[in-house]
Fold this protein.
Amino acid sequence: MKKVAIVGYAQHPILENAGALNEVELIMPVVHQLFDELGISQNNIDFTCSGSCDYLQGAAFAFVEGLSAIQTNPPIKESHVEMDAAWAMYESMLKIQMGDADTALIYGFGKSSPGRLDSIISLQMDPYYISPLWPDRVSLAAIQARVLLEKNIITPEQMITAVIEARTNSKNNKNALVTELVDKEAYLASEKISSPLNEFDCPPISDGSSAMIIASEEKAYDFTDQPIFIEGIDHRIESSNIGSRDLSKPSGILASIEHLKLEKTKFDVAELHTQFSHEVPYLQSVLKLSDVPTNLSGGPLVGNVMMCAGLDAIGKTYESLKSNDLINGLAHASSGPCLQHNMLVHLEKKS
Amino acid sequence: MSDQKDLLRAPFELAYNYKRSSGPLMSKFFNALAEQKILGTKSSTGKVYAPAAEFDPETHESLSDLVEVGPGGVIESFSWIEEPKHHHLIKNPFAFALIKLDGADTSMLHMVTECDEADLKIGSRVTANWSATMENRITDIKFFTLEK
């Protein structure tokens, strides 16, 4: 495996409603912030890959419009994933492994405010048996939460702690959308949206974008004195037949842990793409992170840009390692209902 | 960015207007609903997937051995919606539930209503209620209710 490193990451402030700002206007500032910080231009990028979802914009091939944010003349090598931009990073890794590129620009963007996210997300499900029932994202998450609570894998107190900590940690993240602190009384008084989940258990509707640049080891030091290396990366998906999954056994994540030999690593920091409060203690237990500072950025509970929040988990882990005396970081990205599809990324700072 | 008040806005209602072929296996499932029967598929390991699955996600074999399951079953998990939103099909309080139908080894996502949240538990027995008009869709099962 060729060694690949992250050399830069930028995040747009997460907005409740970006209003008239279109996707291009959300992407341009972060891409140019990165270019300016690294003193480069699109001409230094071998491969460009984006992550977004046309259903959010409500138009076919809407992602092509995003390309207006970058310079595409002379023609560039470019691709897109209809997924979180964490998977655009994965594709870029593969492109570098294949020898087709040494540098890659990745960006993700999403505006959830114009539409009705709950019903839009229903459309990602099986169109024969499930979508016609219009199950919303919160109700599907709540089904998994109830299984985990019933089996005592997590407790209601852990869910409250996850919410309170996310709000407290939002102070570490200048781009966080939700910064208002919450206490146990306010949490318990909140009405259920889809029981057992209440509004505090759910992520805010968010608009925004993020960008990242990765490079092969040879090129990485041209960009920065301190690249953060992608030591391991693996992603697995579970069945789309939600009724055939054991929602209390993350078979995909467990396979990734084994494949990446994560038990051997003592992580200093972790950022998880946990969109709902119950997912925080669940994944902390699965990934054995009880002693590891987790979601110091507040995580998706304080800002959850669709198609971007997974890349943000990787980006926030990168930032933590870069600006602190830390060596090993773990990032997690997720997609699909009830943590169906998961990616684990082991980042390492070389001394 | 201009002030929010000054923005001109136009409505844009996006519909989901596709007609899909149900395919050879699921067509049998949807036809059986018209006779108020629910079908599952049995894999070579003996595991019964319901609603009828076209393939076994564990062995990856294609499935064609149809068996009747339900109409009763057990709730494996559920989420309770006290105040349904615009897109929900049921306008009274209801649950989305994973229901393991009698004779099946996997669960089916559907809705449970005509009860209170406190009446439902993991393990509660429910049974299918049928729609008045059959359209060869999963909604031909109107919802599930607690077994009397």
